[in-house]
Write a structure and sequence with these properties.
InterPro entries: Glyco_trans_8, GNT1/Glycosyltrans_8, Nucleotide-diphossugar_trans. It comes from Symbiodinium pilosum. Pfam families: Glyco_transf_8 (PF01501). By secondary structure, the chain is α/β, with parallel strands linked by helices. The protein is built from nine helices and eleven strands. The chain has one domain: Spore Coat Polysaccharide Biosynthesis Protein SpsA, Chain A, CATH 3.90.550.10. The strands form three sheets. It has a seven-stranded mixed β-sheet, with helices on both faces. The chain has a two-stranded antiparallel sheet with strand order 5-9. A two-stranded antiparallel ribbon has the order 10-11. Helix 2 packs parallel to helix 3, helix 3 crosses helix 8 and helix 7 packs across helix 8.
Length: 351
C-alpha cells in the first residue's frame, strides 16, 4: 500500500514531467515553417506548385524557399516571392569530388543541409520538403511530430533494402546550427563508397543512424508504389475533365513526383513523357494528380506575374495554333533557360 510520502513523490514527479518541454509549441505563426531548397533553375516551376499547394490546402504556417546564392535568376525569384514563398539566400555547398552528385543537377544538393541553420532566423521547427512534392491535403500535423522524423525511401518500401533508408523528401527537423557543423565534419570521415547521387540523404541517414521517427508513406508517396500497394488506390467518379477541390484523396497526403514522374523533366529525360502517360493510363489517380499539378502551377504563376501572365498565355495559344483544339493544352512556364517564359504542353510536349 502506497504511503503518503509515495503519493507526494508521484505527484511531484508528474508535475516535473508536465513541465518538461516534450514538443515545442509555436509562440507565433513564424516559429514554424515549411521549407524547400533550390540550387538550380530546374526546380523553380516545381517550387511554385509546392508552395501554391500548401497555400491551397489551408496550411497555417509560412513557406520558405532557401535559394543557393547566384544560382537562380532574380526575375524568377521575384515571381516566386510574389506568388507564394519567402526567399532566403544561402551559400551553396558543392558535393564532394568522389560523389556521383558532382557531375549532375544534384551537384549542390548538400545545400539542403542549410535548413539546420534556420535557428539563426528564429525558427524552432520546420517541415523540409523537396520542391517536386505535390501537396493534396493539409499536413500541418507534421509539426507536432518529434524531431527528427522522416519518411523512408521507395526502395525500402518496395522491399529492395535489407534495412530502412531515410528519404530527405519530407522531414521534420528542429534547426540546430551545431548539427549542421557536425554533418559537414562527418562528410570527410564517411566511407566514400556509401554516397550515392543523393549525397545529402546518405549523410543524414548515417548521422541519424535509424534513430529518427518514421513518417507514414502517405506523406511522401512515390508513384511507383501504386503498382504494388493496392490499398493506396482511391477510386471515385473523377474524370480528366472534372474540376478538382482539396482534399483530393482520403489517404494520400503528399505525392513525390520525382525524377521521371516530374512533369518538368520531360525534356531532360526522353523516357519521362512515356512513363507519365503510361502511369496516367494505368492509375486513374495519376490523371487527377497531374491535372492538379498544372492547375496549381498556373494559379501560382498568375499570382506571381499578374501583368505578364495574360500575355504569356496568349503567346502560347498563338504559337500552338497548328495543334488545333489542343493548342489550349500549351501553357506558360518559367523553364530552365535564362528566358523567363516558354510554352509547355501539359501532357509532356514542349518547345
Amino acid at each position: 500500500m502506497a504511503t503518503v510520502e509515495d503519493q507526494k513523490l508521484r505527484t511531484r514527479s508528474c508535475r516535473v514531467s508536465l513541465m518538461e518541454p516534450l514538443l515545442p509549441q509555436p509562440r507565433s505563426g513564424r516559429d514554424f515553417a515549411y521549407v524547400t531548397i533550390l540550387w538550380t533553375e530546374d526546380f523553380v516551376d516545381n517550387a511554385i506548385v509546392w508552395a501554391t499547394g500548401l497555400a491551397a490546402s489551408g496550411s497555417a504556417f509560412r513557406r520558405i524557399c532557401i535559394v543557393a546564392r547566384g544560382k537562380i535568376a532574380r526575375s524568377k525569384l521575384g515571381i516566386l516571392s510574389r506568388c507564394c514563398c519567402d526567399i532566403d539566400f544561402a551559400d551553396p555547398i558543392q558535393a564532394p569530388a568522389f560523389s556521383t552528385s558532382r557531375s549532375s543537377r544534384y551537384e549542390f544538393v548538400l545545400t539542403k543541409l542549410r535548413v539546420l541553420q534556420l535557428d539563426r532566423k528564429g525558427l524552432r521547427k520546420i517541415v523540409m520538403m523537396d520542391a517536386d512534392t505535390l501537396v493534396l491535403q493539409n499536413v500541418d500535423e507534421l509539426f507536432w511530430l518529434p524531431s527528427p522524423s522522416a519518411t523512408v525511401n521507395k526502395d525500402t518500401l518496395m522491399g529492395e533494402m535489407d534495412k530502412p533508408k531515410l528519404s530527405a523528401g519530407v522531414m521534420v527537423l528542429e534547426p540546430d546550427s551545431e548539427k549542421f557543423d557536425q554533418l559537414l565534419a562527418d562528410l570527410h570521415y564517411e566511407d566514400r563508397g556509401t554516397f550515392s547521387q543523393f549525397v545529402e540523404q546518405d549523410l543524414l541517414d548515417a548521422y541519424f543512424n535509424h534513430t529518427y521517427n518514421i513518417i507514414p508513406l502517405t506523406y511522401n508517396l512515390y508513384p511507383e508504389l501504386l503498382d504494388i500497394m493496392p490499398f493506396l488506390h482511391h477510386d471515385d467518379q473523377w474524370e480528366p475533365s472534372s474540376n478538382w477541390s482539396l482534399p483530393l484523396d482520403h489517404g494520400v497526403k503528399v505525392v513525390h513526383l520525382w525524377h521521371l514522374f516530374n512533369p518538368f523533366q520531360t525534356e531532360a529525360y526522353k523516357g519521362a513523357q512515356y512513363l507519365q502517360m503510361s502511369a496516367r493510363l494505368v492509375h486513374k489517380q495519376m490523371w487527377k494528380w497531374y491535372t492538379l499539378f498544372w492547375d496549381l502551377h498556373q494559379k501560382g504563376l498568375e499570382r506571381g506575374a499578374p501583368q505578364e501572365y495574360p500575355k504569356w498565355k496568349q503567346q502560347c495559344a498563338e504559337r500552338s495554333q497548328a495543334f488545333g483544339r489542343h493548342s489550349q493544352r500549351f501553357v506558360p512556364v518559367l523553364g530552365t533557360s535564362t528566358e523567363i517564359q516558354i510554352c509547355r504542353h501539359v501532357d509532356g510536349l514542349a518547345w
